[in-house]
């Protein structure tokens, strides 16, 4: 396994953070035009100190930038290799590169303006009204935006469909817990159904939680992230702190996650052999949808039923990050050692990249490697119903007990480059 020692980059950000204390009136706006109000300006240091939804989003983006800076620093040797070998750097010893699109869920950007401490409600509405996009035509809102109460907002009637199986409109809900510094935003829509009573399905999600002064957890529809900062005084700005360790996972684009429970098809005939029309129709609908189960869960992404707030947030660890095995990417970093496991969409196999800073403890490497087990990852799994999965398990069992059964090859190979 190739390891390259590289020097650390000194990196700085211009964001800061601390949290202040907690505090109803329902306010609503829809298509009606209103007098212009000055819009919110992004990038203020104070935004990272706000004890409101926008503050939580800004803290999320600060942590994201810190992680990207760490990874860019770990990969800096690639720039040296490319400058010295511009025509053959792919085959040059020492070149290791991978792609990581961290926290790229659009709901974070779309909902970032909701706040209690920076502006009044009219300013927030003006911000949305002035931006041409899914919520506005550039002058008037094309949906209804509501402040339900402090730290609780909703957007309804946003035009759009998902996988051609939904009603044509999305609803959003944004929540903040000012006592704990927790954020949650999710986008839901109704499924077009003739025979099945279905809950709304979650088509986008974002969650952020402060676990303690040093530890933060973040989840989106396809990602999970746990960040641990080096200890510091409680009033130290995040931008002035350093990352001790982080753990990140991202689901494959279209594969069935291993934590998903597929729809269990109903019996279509009764004890007399008569067709049960309702069951047959319901099974046909789920077969047509493909990616849903009866609880409204989606096979390829996390939803509200997977919310980290439904469990013990204070007990979050890297086991939660890597719980699902249908991963596009799994990244582990601790004390100057970075280990990246990526699913190569061209070879349909997993590749591993390893980097370490000068002075890091190589004795940590085996421990960090073991956190993401290559032999447990499943690649981009085909989406199946419960019955199909059971049949495949039976067939596999029969094959493995046959005379020609051979042990699976679990040899791990090291990669030199990836399209992941």
TrEMBL record:
Segments for region (Disordered): 25-53, 382-420
Acidic residues bias (residue ranges): 411-420
PROSITE patterns linked to this entry: PROKAR_LIPOPROTEIN (PS51257)
Keywords for this protein: Signal
Biased composition (Polar residues): 36-52
Highest taxon, organism lineage: Bacteria
Signal sequence extent: 1-21
Biased composition regions of type Basic and acidic residues, renumbered to the chain: 382-394
Identification of the protein by name: DUF4367 domain-containing protein
Lineage summary: Bacteria, Bacillati, Bacillota, Clostridia, Lachnospirales
């Amino acid at each position: 396994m190739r390891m390259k020692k590289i020097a650390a980059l000194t990196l700085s950000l211009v964001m800061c953070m601390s949290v202040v204390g907690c505090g109803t009136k329902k306010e609503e706006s829809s298509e009606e035009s209103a007098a212009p109000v000055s819009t919110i300006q992004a990038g203020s240091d104070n935004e990272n100190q706000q004890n409101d939804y926008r503050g939580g989003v800004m803290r999320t983006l600060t942590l994201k930038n810190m992680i990207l800076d760490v990874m860019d620093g770990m990969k800096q040797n690639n720039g040296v290799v490319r400058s010295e070998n511009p025509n053959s750097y792919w085959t040059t010893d020492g070149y290791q590169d991978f792609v990581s699109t961290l926290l790229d869920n659009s709901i974070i950007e779309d909902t970032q303006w909701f706040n209690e401490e920076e502006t009044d409600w009219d300013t927030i509405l003006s911000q949305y009204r002035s931006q041409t996009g899914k919520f506005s035509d550039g002058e008037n809102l094309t949906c209804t935006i509501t402040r339900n109460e402090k730290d609780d907002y909703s957007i309804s009637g946003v035009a759009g469909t998902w996988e051609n199986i939904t009603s044509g409109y999305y609803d959003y809900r944004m929540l903040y817990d000012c006592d704990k510094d927790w954020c949650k935003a999710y986008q839901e829509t109704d499924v077009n159904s003739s025979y099945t009573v279905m809950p709304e399905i979650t088509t986008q999600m974002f969650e952020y939680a402060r676990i303690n002064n040093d530890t933060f957890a973040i989840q989106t529809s396809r990602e999970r992230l746990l960040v641990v900062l080096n200890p510091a005084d409680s009033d130290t700005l995040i931008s002035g702190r350093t990352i001790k360790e982080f753990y990140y996972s991202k689901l494959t684009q279209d594969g069935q996650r291993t934590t998903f429970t597929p729809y269990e098809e109903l019996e279509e005939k009764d004890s007399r052999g008569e067709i049960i029309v309702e069951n047959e129709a319901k099974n046909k609908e789920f077969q047509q949808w493909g990616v849903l189960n009866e609880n409204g869960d989606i096979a390829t992404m996390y939803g509200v039923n997977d919310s980290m707030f439904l469990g013990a947030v204070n007990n979050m660890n890297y086991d939660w990050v890597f719980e699902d095995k249908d991963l596009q990417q799994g990244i582990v970093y601790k004390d100057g050692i970075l280990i990246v496991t990526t699913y190569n969409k061209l070879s349909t196999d997993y590749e591993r990249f390893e980097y370490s800073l000068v002075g890091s403890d190589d004795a940590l490497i085996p421990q960090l490697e073991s956190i993401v087990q290559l032999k447990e990852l499943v690649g981009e799994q085909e989406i199946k119903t419960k019955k199909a999965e059971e049949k495949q398990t039976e067939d596999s069992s029969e094959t493995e007990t046959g005379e020609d059964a051979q042990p699976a090859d679990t040899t791990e190979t090291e990669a030199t480059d990836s399209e992941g």
